[in-house]
């Protein structure tokens, strides 16, 4: 134990039925023991003294810690005897059936130390939950752990040591003494046990039940007596093509039958229903297979299970991601997968399998191929991807049946000459090598049809005569360095991929061409040597189109097209994408001639009208999707829409529409999704009720005054009418059952009782306006204001989240973030709930901006727990910070990102990138991935999982994919106008320049975020979207206007009670704080999470004068940049680290006394105080510390510093599936639970809700009288005296 790990670690136990050792895995010592997959029937059957105990795996003796004496072969007695109908079948010899015994024996799991004289157990390491690997003789656990953490991204040795002592690291890295056992892997290898068995028909009296050893392994059922199992004699029943049935006359009984005319049947009676179900599930999967195959991938095998050798009919064996040696003996198979086994050298035993037709040796770090490979004359598919090969043996040329050869991601510098002898090879895959030139003469003698040369360094094609290249039909040269490509040398070419090169001149032969993928180039000249009559798909990045008679899909967006040629109007054209051009009009006959057009995207152009759908009242248009966002369309185009009666999706946002005629809307009955945002509409036509299939209505940023009756449509899912002029709303009694989102923010005149809308998943509305907010607006803006928006994708699944904390760790800091889970919702939610707590904790540990932000992402990787092993997500954080000790300092903006979430700063109207996208197009990242021999698939994804090389989660892709972020820090200046945080879908739809120009003239941050999201959807984005826009008001003197007033004296130490009343020692721009604390039960394996319950409305009380008379100051002589009051709402998920950062009083929550000025209702805390620094002679307290009675803490400390270990306040997290902006939020509404109890592990439990009977209830008829009495008492009370009921729940 001392040699394994010097740090204390909590035990990680397996399920009770599996047993566990003290080191977090199975522990074994002594002699004659085997691992979970290295044991055999010998160990399983030699337990005669314990026949009544059922064991369903070969390793249960080690797992359960049975006594070693029970495994003595001499004690293995067949107490039931042998049945008279036993048959001796031909099977491998006893020697073949017995495994290789190792010098170990199982010991009791209760023993913590090895017995004297016994060898210590082997050490195993497990990464990200994958099967454990045995450590080599020279490997040291502590060194492995340090290397892992340094490679992950930690830079300081002391921080690596601190992270190594954290018990949560087990989800990323674990060490075991003895091989860890899991029931899932054990069952996949084999099932075994002692059961009552009967052979033949149940009606025959000659057959009787006997106690037999039964093993289900590979493709066979093996039955034997205990004695016969020692000699290898057993009955073998092939199950492929057979059947397994339940016997109704006997409980827990199954009938196993083989196939064929001479089939046999065995009846097995199990001891429990659980065993019966387990065996039935595995056997049913086995007999249902059409081919005889066994999948033992990802089982951590160090050798093949011996009982697998009995499966003589086995033809396909999958052994990928194991730890098998190169000299492992194998069966006569047809298909063998040995990829990712760390072989290191070519496995010679496979060359003796003459029946082999498919062999996969990818990712084994092979440096050469043995010449004996020429013996496998039946081989048809040979995969050698992801190795270290530079040459191939000449003997490979004797494999005349070889049709597919995979050589991708090796180290070839030229095409191997031996390929000229392989006449049967039709597909050549050499992606990811080091080819610099491509001499086409090498293809003369080849008969290859599909050539894959992606991700090389090819800059030139050496031409050859076209007659010798007639066999090539598909050419893929993506991600190379080509500037000129003459693909006309391939006269029968059908599909061409040449994306992401530097091609300026492209020449192709069009006679057989069907698809051209040429985006992301610098095309100036596109030439077809012959007419492209068969072309159906064209994706180009040039200013040219071509005459393509059968073109069905044309993508010509993001160019500078001013008009479309007439030949684009073709009857077979189905999809036309011409967005982001300079078109002023579409061809007048576009809809008249393109009868098959289903989707048209002409957004981001200069269109003023659209062409008619027909010349008469009758129209044959089948158009279903029409995107016209961000044009110059007026009301004149609305009547022209009626001809498209099959229209389902209509996007006309950000045009110049003033009205939408009701009679025209009535004719569009098939509409399902409508976006009319950013126009000048005052009403939505009432005839929208005719659209019975309508599920999405988006019409924000208009002047709509009357709420449409769309909530009466039963299929309605999303309604967004934010930023309008809505007043009263009449809601129906029954809301649509599918309604998930209702956004009514930005309607200041709206009066709505939203308690009836609590069942909506995402409901947004502004808080009621108060005189306090009105007074705040008069005093001028703060340094920043923000708005956010979120939108689900086509699958109606919100896979994004946003973080918005305008007052983070104090009023002079802010934190904003965007998280994108691609297709999962778990990771974005965990990032949103936990990342702000981690960042607050890291601020105390590091002074460097890069270090604290980098460490935040790395610690978050650990906090994701098991959820981050197979799932992942992008993240972008922006932290606005000001050092209070630097009187002349400025605000700094620190941005960090992984994945495809980005942050863009607008400075003087120009975009300033704050983020970097890490993918294979970055040479440094590509070199790192190549070093670790990862495979990049055709969609540019690492191992087919993610196209980002730095991303949160996906820890099973380590070390190819890391969570280390890109960090960028710069000081904010008065020229900085705003910055944008966006998810992947936003930046795939528009460039940073376009995003900045789109919202620069939109003063309201919420409306700006809405516009960006709407534009992305109008440009065709089908992904989940999340956008945060933060408006900046950084003046010339904003950084030092308050700091100059602070006297130079050290800050007071943090404490529970306020300090004596003296002058304010340090300024604080926060004026009023109202915060709620909510927690939920958090799992150490998943990470810190917050409550997901729906929020509830709680009353707001304004009692600022009662907190402290000295804090209630006049408004005169204030800083123009800091208003008198700023009300901030937040709901914070706390962890223990955050709680300790907020309070150093070292008292438990139950022992702490309530603080003056705090009203607590469950976990909700409301505080009101004006602690703004003023030039006044009045004295005030130096601190105002707020603390809940149950331990949830929110502090407002106007003299605190980060060096003193205090954090000012935390920001908000959404409670209903959406981030709540602190300034404008209806989610002042959190479920009132008890405050969490602090635990050593940093997690909290979620106690029960408070009893409503404990709350004070005043009858309505006495409410006015009670208020008057309280008011009179307050007037006669001295300034420093608190009311007797001050600590009660407020009215």
UniProtKB/TrEMBL annotation:
PPM-type phosphatase domain span: 785-1032
Classification via Pfam families: LRR_1, LRR_8, PP2C, RA_3
Membrane topology designation: Peripheral membrane protein
Keywords linked to the UniProt accession: Cytoplasm, Hydrolase, Leucine-rich repeat, Manganese, Membrane, Metal-binding, Nucleus, Phosphoprotein, Protein phosphatase, Repeat
Catalytic activity: O-phospho-L-threonyl-[protein] + H2O = L-threonyl-[protein] + phosphate
Primary residence: cytoplasm
Broad enzyme group: hydrolase
Coiled-coil zones: none
Keyword Signal: no
GO cellular component: cytoplasm; membrane; nucleus
Localization of this protein: Cytoplasm; Membrane; Nucleus
Compositionally biased tracts (Polar residues): 1175-1198
Region described as Disordered: 1-55, 76-123, 1074-1094, 1175-1223, 1269-1291
Cofactor(s) listed in the protein's UniProt record: Mn(2+)
Entries under Gene3D superfamilies matching the protein: PPM-type phosphatase domain, Ribonuclease Inhibitor
E.C. code: 3.1.3.16
Taxonomy, superkingdom: Eukaryota
GO molecular function list: metal ion binding; protein serine/threonine phosphatase activity
Bias-annotated ranges (Low complexity): 1074-1088
Protein name: protein-serine/threonine phosphatase
Natural source organism: Denticeps clupeoides (denticle herring)
């Amino acid at each position: 134990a001392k040699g394994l790990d010097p740090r204390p670690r909590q035990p990680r136990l397996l399920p009770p039925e599996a047993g566990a050792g003290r080191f977090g895995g199975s522990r074994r010592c002594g002699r004659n023991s085997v691992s979970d997959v290295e044991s055999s029937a010998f160990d399983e059957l030699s337990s005669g003294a314990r026949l009544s105990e059922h064991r369903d795996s070969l390793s249960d003796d080690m797992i359960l810690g049975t006594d070693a004496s029970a495994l003595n072969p001499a004690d293995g007695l067949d107490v039931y005897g042998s049945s008279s109908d036993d048959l001796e079948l031909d099977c491998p010899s006893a020697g073949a059936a017995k495994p290789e015994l190792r010098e170990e024996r199982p010991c009791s799991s209760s023993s913590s130390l090895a017995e004297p004289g016994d060898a210590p157990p082997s050490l195993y390491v497990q990464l990200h939950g994958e099967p454990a690997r045995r450590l080599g003789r020279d490997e040291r656990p502590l060194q492995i752990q340090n290397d892992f953490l340094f490679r992950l991204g930690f830079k300081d040795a002391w921080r690596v040591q601190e992270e190594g002592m954290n018990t949560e690291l087990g989800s990323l890295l674990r060490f075991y003494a003895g091989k860890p056992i899991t029931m899932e892997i054990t069952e996949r290898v084999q099932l075994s046990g002692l059961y009552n068995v009967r052979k033949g028909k149940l009606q025959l009296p000659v057959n009787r039940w006997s106690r037999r050893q039964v093993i289900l392994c590979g493709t066979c059922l093996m039955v034997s007596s205990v004695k016969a199992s020692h000699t290898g004699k057993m009955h073998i029943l092939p199950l492929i093509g057979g059947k397994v049935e339940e016997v109704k006359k006997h409980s827990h009984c199954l009938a196993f039958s083989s196939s064929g005319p001479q089939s046999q049947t065995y009846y097995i009676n199990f001891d429990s229903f659980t065993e019966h179900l387990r065996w039935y599930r595995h056997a049913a999967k086995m007999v249902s297979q059409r081919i005889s195959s066994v999948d033992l991938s990802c089982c951590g095998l160090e050798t093949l299970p011996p009982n697998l050798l009995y499966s003589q009919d086995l033809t396909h064996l999958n052994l990928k991601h194991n730890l098998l040696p190169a000299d492992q003996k194998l069966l006569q198979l047809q298909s063998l997968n040995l990829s990712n086994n760390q072989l290191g050298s070519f496995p010679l035993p496979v060359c003796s399998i003459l029946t082999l037709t498919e062999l996969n040796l990818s990712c084994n770090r092979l440096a050469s191929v043995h010449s004996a490979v020429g013996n496998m004359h039946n081989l048809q598919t040979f995969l050698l991807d992801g190795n270290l090969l530079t040459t191939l043996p000449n003997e490979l040329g004797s494999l005349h049946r070889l049709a597919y050869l995979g050589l991708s991601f090796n180290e070839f510098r030229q095409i191997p000459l031996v390929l000229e002898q392989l006449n049967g090879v039709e597909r050549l895959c050499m992606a990811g090598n080091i080819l610099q030139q491509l001499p086409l003469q090498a293809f003369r003698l080849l008969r290859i049809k599909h050539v894959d040369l992606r991700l090389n360094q090819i800059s030139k094609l050496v031409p050859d005569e076209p007659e010798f290249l007639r066999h090539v039909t598909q050419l893929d040269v993506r991600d190379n360095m080509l500037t000129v490509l003459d693909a006309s040398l391939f006269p029968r070419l059908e599909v061409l991929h040449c994306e992401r090169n530097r091609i300026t001149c492209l020449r192709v032969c069009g006679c057989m061409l069907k698809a051209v993928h040429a985006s992301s180039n610098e095309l100036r000249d596109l030439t077809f040597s012959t007419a492209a009559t068969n072309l159906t798909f064209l994706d180009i990045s040039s200013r040219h189109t071509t005459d393509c008679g059968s073109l069905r899909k044309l993508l010509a967006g993001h160019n500078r097209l001013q008009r479309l040629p007439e030949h684009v109007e073709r009857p077979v054209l189905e999809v036309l994408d011409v967005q982001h051009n300079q078109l002023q009009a579409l061809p007048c006959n576009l809809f008249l001639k393109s009868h098959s057009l289903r989707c048209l995207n002409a957004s981001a152009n200069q269109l003023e009208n659209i062409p008619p759908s027909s010349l008469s009242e009758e129209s044959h248009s089948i158009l279903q999707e029409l995107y016209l966002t961000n044009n110059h369309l007026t009301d004149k185009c609305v009547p022209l829409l009626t001809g498209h009666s099959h229209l389902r999706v209509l996007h006309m946002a950000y045009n110049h529409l003033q009205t939408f005629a009701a009679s025209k809307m009535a004719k569009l009955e098939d509409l399902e999704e409508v976006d009319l945002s950013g126009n000048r509409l005052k009403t939505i036509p009432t005839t929208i009720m005719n659209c019975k299939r309508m599920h999405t209505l988006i019409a924000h940023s208009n002047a709509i005054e009357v709420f449409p009756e769309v909530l009466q449509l039963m299929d309605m899912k999303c309604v967004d009418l934010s930023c309008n002029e809505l007043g009263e709303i009449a809601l129906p009694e029954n809301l649509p059952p599918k309604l998930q989102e209702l956004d009514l923010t930005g309607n200041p005149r709206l009066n709505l009782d939203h308690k009836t809308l609590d069942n909506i998943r995402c409901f947004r509305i502004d808080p009621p306006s108060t005189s306090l907010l009105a007074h705040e607006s008069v005093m001028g803006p703060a340094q920043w204001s923000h708005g956010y928006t979120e939108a689900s994708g086509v699958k109606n699944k919100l896979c994004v989240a946003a973080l918005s904390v305008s007052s983070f760790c104090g009023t002079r800091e802010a934190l904003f973030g965007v998280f994108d889970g691609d297709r999962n919702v778990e990771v974005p939610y965990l990032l949103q709930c936990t990342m702000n707590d981690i960042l607050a904790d890291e601020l105390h540990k590091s002074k460097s901006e890069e270090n604290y932000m980098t460490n935040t992402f790395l610690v978050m990787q650990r906090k994701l727990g098991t959820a981050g092993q197979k799932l992942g997500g992008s993240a972008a954080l922006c932290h606005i910070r000001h050092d209070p000790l630097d009187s002349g300092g400025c605000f700094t903006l620190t941005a960090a990102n992984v994945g495809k979430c980005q942050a863009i700063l607008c400075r003087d109207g120009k975009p300033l990138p704050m983020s970097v996208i890490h993918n294979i197009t970055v040479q440094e990242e590509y070199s790192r991935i190549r070093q670790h021999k990862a495979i990049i698939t055709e969609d540019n994804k690492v191992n087919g999982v993610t196209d980002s090389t730095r991303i949160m989660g996906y820890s099973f892709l380590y070390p190819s994919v890391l969570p280390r972020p890109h960090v960028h820090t710069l000081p904010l200046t008065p020229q900085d106008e705003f910055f944008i945080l966006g998810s992947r879908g936003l930046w795939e739809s528009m460039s940073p320049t376009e995003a900045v120009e789109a919202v620069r003239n939109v003063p309201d941050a919420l409306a700006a975020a809405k516009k960006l999201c709407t534009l992305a959807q109008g440009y065709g984005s089908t992904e989940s979207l999340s956008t945060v826009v933060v408006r900046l008001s950084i003046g010339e003197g904003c950084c030092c206007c308050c700091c100059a007033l602070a006297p130079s004296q050290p800050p007071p130490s943090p404490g529970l009670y306020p300090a004596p009343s003296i002058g304010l020692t340090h300024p604080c721009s926060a004026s009023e704080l109202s915060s709620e604390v909510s927690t939920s039960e958090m799992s150490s394996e998943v990470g810190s999470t917050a409550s997901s319950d729906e929020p509830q409305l709680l009353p707001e009380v304004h009692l600022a004068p009662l907190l402290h008379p000295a804090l209630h100051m006049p408004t005169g002589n204030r800083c123009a940049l800091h208003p008198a009051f700023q009300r901030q709402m937040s709901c914070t998920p706390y962890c223990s680290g955050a709680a300790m950062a907020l309070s150093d009083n070292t008292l438990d929550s139950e022992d702490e006394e309530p603080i003056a000025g705090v009203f607590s209702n469950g976990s909700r805390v409301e505080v009101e105080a004006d602690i703004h620094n003023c030039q006044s002679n009045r004295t005030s307290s130096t601190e105002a510390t707020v603390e809940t009675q149950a331990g949830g803490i929110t502090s407002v400390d106007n003299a605190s510093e980060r060096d003193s270990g205090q954090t000012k306040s935390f920001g908000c997290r959404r409670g209903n599936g959406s981030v709540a902006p602190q300034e404008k939020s209806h989610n002042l509404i959190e479920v009132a639970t008890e405050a969490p109890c602090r635990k050593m592990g940093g997690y909290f439990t979620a106690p029960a809700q408070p009893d409503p009977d404990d709350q004070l209830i005043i009858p309505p008829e006495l409410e006015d009288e009670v208020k008057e009495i309280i008011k009179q008492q307050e007037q006669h009370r001295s300034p420093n005296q608190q009311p007797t009921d001050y600590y009660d729940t407020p009215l």
